[in-house]
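Task: complex structure prediction.
Instruction: return structure tokens for all chains below.
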Amino acid sequence: MSRWPPHLTDALEPRPEELAGLMPPAAPRWCADATSPSDAELGRLLAHASRLPARRRRPNRALAWGLAAAVTLLAVLHLIPLPSDPEPSALVDDSALHFGPSITVRGDGEIQVIRTDADGTELALLAGRATFEVDPTGEQRHLEVRAGDVRVEVTGTRFTVALEGDRVSVEVLRGSVQIHRPGDSLGLHAGERWSGLAQPTEQAAATPTGPEVREPDAGARAPRTAPRAPTTEGPPPRAETPAPSTEQPAPAEIGSAAPTALSGRTAAEAWAALLAKRAAGAEPEAQLAALDRFLAEHQDPVLETEASALRLGLLAQQLPGEEVLPELDTWLAGHPDHARSLELELLRATVAREQLGDCGLALSSYTRVAREATGTLQATAQAWADYCRERSSR
Amino acid sequence: MTDRDLIAGLRAGELWAVDRLYRDNAPRVLGWCIRLGGPSLDPEDLAQQVFETAITSCGRFRGDSSLSTWLFGITRNSIRNARRRAALRRFVGMDAIPEPRDRGPDTEGRAVQNERRRAVQAALEDLKTAQREVLVLADLEGRTAPEVAAMLGIPAGTVYSRLHHARRAFATALEARGLPAGEEPEEGTVIPLRRAP
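Output:
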């Protein structure tokens, strides 16, 4: 807001005739005409007036959508804070493991040493929680921590990794880390948390072979249970110059615990994981299994409908048309106005035409999509409707 | 009848007031929804939502702006929310969402009209929201700069400068689609409606 009196600011405003010379021509009139409401549109809108009760109270859809959007967004970004996470300071205790000159590990987790040498250190968190501190100015500061199939890569920072069941959570206390999952990778910075499911994998604890494998002490594992209270353990062994070992590390046990898959997650989290799997190009069978699991475990009405629609899309690729078609009909009858209904109607038509060779059956679906959709969907349906009409008339 | 009378009628739950609100404002609200909502939102649904919001929240109308300005504010919010929802749906993977239904009879003339409308909407989508609003209110609806300034809550000088940039951007967007950015074409002129790659 200007602090000058209005007559002064107005006097300095450019006059329209002054601006006219500077400006390119105004928008052509036909653009206004092209975007003016038609009589039919106005008629339909005005027809609502007679049906609308005055001052009708509507549920706050905006709020509901906003909340759903926020939850979904957070879930997709995998940044939902874990309520059970203790404060970072609770993880620090008196004992510590040292790997090389720059890496210190504290906590109550169970750690397996995969490799530690001049090129860096690889550790696997088998269970529990551990805080890893890497001196950003020190030597041999490359560290990789694995928890299931999740890899956390770092060259200088302080962060916590926890593996509880099949859920991995990572919290960065200082610096930043890079988290790798099969087909996915994301950066995490100080103050941020990430949580996700670790899939069992035989590579998680890795089995590096050859003379490069080094271990800080005789045991491949360094069990670190319940050190919160004053520990009775002696000072942790330092591993600044670990002796070369040709022994294979102990076999990984990460994958041995049967994952509980989506259990314990909210519908939004589970849905986000499912979409990530889909985006990563998972096999249809795996996607189908994930969808079935989702439908069995969650009763979210919106996501449930969406999941059932996606499931039908996948089923159509796997099952013969005779089996898919009744399922499609049931879904379409139950969700006539759903955003996916036109897509599934088109799918129904495709199944009928391609798999059953029944153009007559397909025509009704193509006609509906051609009538109600616009854009590519409409054009596709219209073309196939014309084709089926011609085939049927022969 | 003044705006205050109409609002008083709405607050009292009078059906004549609802009817009057629709009849007096449907063309402009629907026009805003078409021009500011873009090609992927259903303008009739949006306009209907605007009226429902106006009726349910008429108690909050303080009368320090015109009814038209108040309705424009509701329309802006509704469009913003609808765009956000649409973006979220795309983000979470519910892709290939059907475009708004075309509920009219399927005639060739109508198809051409629809195509032309979508082309203009797509060109408007190339503009920043602030530019689009100014261009729509000033150039497509013929409002004066002070009127536009009052509706958008910005100084008149800002309207001029935004309009200047908006017109240039709009002309560029039209040309990119092979549409005439100048004067109205004569009747019978064939306008190539190719979409931008």
